[in-house]
Amino acid sequence: MGSFLFSRLLSAVVVIVGVVCLVFMLIHLVPGDPVDVMLGESAMPADREALRSSLGLDRPLAVQLAEYLRGVAVLDLGRSLHAKQAVAELLAERIPATLELAFAALVITLLIAIPLGIFAAVNRGRVADWGAMGFSMLGMSIPNFWLGPMLILCFSLWLGWTPVSGREGMSSLILPAVTLGMSFAAILARMVRSSLLEVLDEDFVRTARAKGLDERRVVWRHAMGNAWLPVITLVGLQLGALLGGAVVTEVVFDWPGIGSLMIESIQKRDYPVVQGCVLFISLAYVLVNTLTDLVYGLVDPRIHGGGRR
Amino acid sequence: MIRRWIPYLLIALWGMAALIGPWFSEAGNVIDLEKILQPPGPAALLGYDDLGRSILLRLVAGAQTSFIVAVGVVGFSALVGSLIGLLAGYHGGWLDLLLVRVIDIFLAFPGILLAIALAGVMGPGIDNLIIALSVVGWVGYARLARGQVLSLKRRDHVMAAVALGSSRLTILTKHLLPLLMAPLIVEATFGMAGMVIAEAGLSFLGLGIQSPQASWGSMIRDGAGYMLMAPHMVLAPGVTIMLVVLSLNLLGDRLRDYLDIRLPKSAH
Q1: pLDDT tens-digit profile of B17-53?
Q2: Do B122 and A31 touch (CB under 8 A)?
């Protein structure tokens, strides 16, 4: 167990260092001179030099990278070019909104996916199964930048039930959460179905049925109890993916989170902030994935021995 | 069973629209102030947008954009990704360790986040869009190819080829690659669906195709401001994207069943 924990944490550290290096490289992908792009051609030479040295672009690449890594370690992500504020501060202002949205979307995902998946599996091959999986296929194929506007049109503009955009109270959270959660719910529902179907074929389920247990007890206690593992992994992966998918949803609903900060900063060519946003979301993703792996390892004793690859 | 053929028909329509798209890109940009926001009717099948441009013609022109991006990105990522995966899985040892680390690092960026950042930093345009999405896209194919090779290289026919002294290149291209094709084709079909959404998504965010060139995503973005007056501006491109993606997903599902493959479910 100890070595499993150690190897998982070690590989997480390697990945984190790699992620930071990639994010660092982003600013060097700006076509031409990043300083020109950020300040415009008409900027004063003195301003250019000041920005160049504050971004560290006048130093060798290796030194810049070392500086950036050191900065990230102490949560110093540089300063915004427009807000005249530290990037870390800007991020801290927006993090609660993104986390709130991601958790709400996760709750919606689970509320839709688990009943739908179980319903489909129990009715395998019947019209109900076909309908549930058709619904899930549809959910996977609807892009969230279209679902969002459509929900706004129905529930905000026509029915007037929810605000069109912004973040004011529970009612403003519902549509963004549904928009963000829909495609994940669709994927998860299929996972729950196939996972449960696999377990329903096992001998112990037949035994439970043979004992005369009623079907509800067989499905919920005996079968689902063993079908949770792959579902937990996917939920963990999804919580992280929800943070990434939130970018588009936040823009659609003008939700004041990290995603909309990132797009605003791209438009203003405020690259240190863009780097900060990518870094935060990716690190959160790595963290959630590592935790999921560890929980999976704890729950399933078969894992620690061999490793998962 | 006509229903079975609907997805194939829709994908063929998409491809055909992409082929004839270049002839419509000019017509789709023609501004007619008389027809601003005109709803669909007998005279104009899908109506007109906020600048009086025909939505049907812009959908056809946009099909070209989404097709080029989807085929370009999937083709490039599948080629590069599976070669890397093949190499890692077959060579093993330090090379495998190194490549797996690189794959892990790229997988640490959720969804299209990295593509958004790359497209945002490199600037708009179809070529930058393809680069940004390929940088993110190759990883899935690499992971898939590596996993497959790890199990395939213990097969008898590969061992026999090794024992007979076949060169490494022959083994990789003649004995391993053909067996890899089936799962790669299935993954690529789902990948096309993902890329249609990704292209439209980036263009929706203003990071992809620039106006006046048509993209389904930027059409939704333009229409979002006129939803009460002219819902057709958002409905038409949205339904189009959904139908194409749905068809590709259905095709992928059928191919998977037909070729009898079990893929790890990729989280988009």
Answers
A1: 888 878 877 777 878 777 777 788 777 788 888 787 8
A2: yes
CB contact under 8 A, B227 and A153: yes
Q: Where are the domains of chain A?
A: 94-304
Task: Please check whether residue B190 is in contact with residue A115, taking contact to mean a CB–CB distance below 8 angstroms.
Answer: no
Is the pLDDT confidence value at B267 over 50? Answer: no
Q: In whole angstroms, what is the distance from residue B199 CA to residue A46 CA?
A: 40
Give the integer Cα–Cα distance in Å for A139 and A127: 18
- CATH fold, domain A94-304, is MetI-like fold (1.10.3720)
Angle (CA) A115-A117-A118 rounded to 5° is 65
Q: What ipTM goes with this model?
A: 0.86
Q: Which of A243, A303, A248 is nearest to A278 (CA)?
A: A243
Give residue-wise pLDDT tens across range B188-199.
999 999 999 999
Q: Where are the domains of chain B?
A: 2-261
The residue with greater pLDDT, A52 or B83, is: B83
* Six-digit token string for A242: 């929800």
Angle at A165 between CA A96 and CA A153, to 5 degrees: 140
Residue length of chain B:
268
Q: What are phi and psi of A79, to 5 degrees?
A: -120, 150
Query: Are A26 and A278 a contacting pair, CB within 8 Å?
Result: yes
Q: Which amino acid is at A7?
A: S
B152 has a chain A CB within 8 A of its CB: no
* In the predicted structure, residue A215 carries a pLDDT above the cut 80: no
Tens-digit pLDDT profile for residues A160-207: 888 877 877 788 889 999 999 998 899 899 888 988 888 888 788 788
CATH number for B2-261: choose from 2.40.37.10, 3.20.20.70, 1.10.510.10, 1.10.3720.10. 1.10.3720.10
Question: Which of B196, B205, B228 has the highest number of chain A CBs within 10 A, making it the mutation to test binding with A?
Answer: B205
When scoring B105, B150, B210, B222 by the number of chain A Cβ atoms within 10 A, the one with the most, hence best to mutate, is B105
Q: Quick one: angle between helices B126-152 and B177-204, nearest 10?
A: 150
B7 Cα to chain A: minimum distance (Å): 13
Amino acid type, A279: L
Say if B121 is an interface residue toward chain A (CB within 8 Å). yes
| B48: three-class secondary structure by DSSP | strand
**Alpha-carbon torsion angle A8, A14, A16, A18, nearest 10:** -150
